[in-house]
Amino acid sequence: MNEPLGIKSTDFWVKVVEMLQQNWALIDDETGGSVRVFFVDDGSGVFDEMAFPSASSARTALGLNGFERYAESADLQSFLRPPAAPYHRTTHPNGPIYSSGRFWRS
Predict the structure, then answer these.
(1) CA–CA distances in Å: residue 79 to residues 7, 12, 14, 22, 71
(2) Does 103 reside within a domain?
(3) pLDDT by residue (tens digit) across 44-95?
(4) Do the domain assignments include residue 95?
(5) pLDDT value at residue 21
């Protein structure tokens, strides 16, 4: 469960879930132009992931689901720090919350 993951992206997206809890997302390129979004907790644990046909479709979906691009928000940068690599697999108390569709709008 603690195997390190080779996520290359450093362009964070963030969703403030509640006081002192954020869910982070990184969009990583895959072969053929598709991408994989890794959902990361504050402790650098990857608790879910989803595949998308393109980076633009992933960015659109993240925005529809309440995520903001960290680099574009001076406000978020003033009080949040993204989790640091290396990233490892972990579980979320509610299971795969995004890929299951329970907390994801298409």
Answers:
(1) 24, 15, 12, 12, 13
(2) no
(3) 999 999 999 999 999 999 999 999 999 999 999 999 999 999 999 999 988 8
(4) no
(5) 87
